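User: Hey, quick favor. My workstation is busy. Could you predict this chain's structure for me?
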Amino acid sequence: MRSLLSARERERGQILVIVAGGAITLILLMGLVLDGGVAFFNRRDAQNTSDVMALAGTKFVSDVHRAKAQADPSITTTFVALGRSAAANDCSPTGAVPCTWQAWFVGGGASGPVDLSPVAAASTVPANALGVRVAVRRLPKTFVVGFAGIGNWDVNTEATAIAERPTRAPQGQLLPIAFKGDPTTAYQPGQVYDLTDGKDLPGGFGYISWTGSNSAGGLETSLCTPDNPEFTLPRNFPGDPGKTNSSGVRACLDGWINSGQTVLIPIYDTTTGNGNGASYHIIGVAAFVLTSREQPAVDNIRGYFVEIFTANPIPGGAGAQPPTPTDTSFSLSLVR
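Assistant: No problem, here it is.
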């Protein structure tokens, strides 16, 4: 009888151990879920902070390069801009969740942005700075896992943003429309110019054939879905005569006009031959927004000038460069 009672008591003891162990495991799992959620939300907040700070710092760097009146190139002012962004995003060493940050100027490298120098160590914005990299660290407190000796989560994030001016002709934007001009001429941004009026080449209408083929639909294809090859300036391209009254060509031109999108137009200085033997000597590329065309007879295509692209080859170029005071377009974006 005693042996039966002893067995039952041992079973009860084993069950209590199992229940206690299960309860502890359940509490730890709940703690991990709770504390893990805290860490996740703090990581999201830290990433948002680093993203916004990188963009704010890079906007300041671009303003310095573009000689904006309010942009003092001193590092003190740069720190003020970054600090203001940090404070607006609840990043403070004395906040409810301690938060610290560091920042570096970045430039362009063969494989992407590379650190130039810490913002704190420089005296002015470096001349070759493209943007800013920001690292943010948050230390939210733990709850249940604190009993295991882990008092804080260590949450680290970073973001890099750059502002660069285009140094190459982007693929998919170069239209086969020849514009007689000079890349060194001071064209006025926003002023409307006649891009082509068909007067410079007998039998031509100011259109270019990238391949030399005058097949039906070839010009329409190159206008609707630009398919220019990569080339080095200067370069001769054959003309594409006799297609000016194509309904497909007119529809493509109307599409660009209605879109208001910036397109790239080849600049030529001289022509040779006529008809199917015509050739345009391309010496540059300019950005325009097409505004109108005329029919019938000859398409007199008009557009307002945006800027000259100085890169060579087209497309291609020497890589990213900071914007300059004369830039009318540049990109500002997060890159990592």
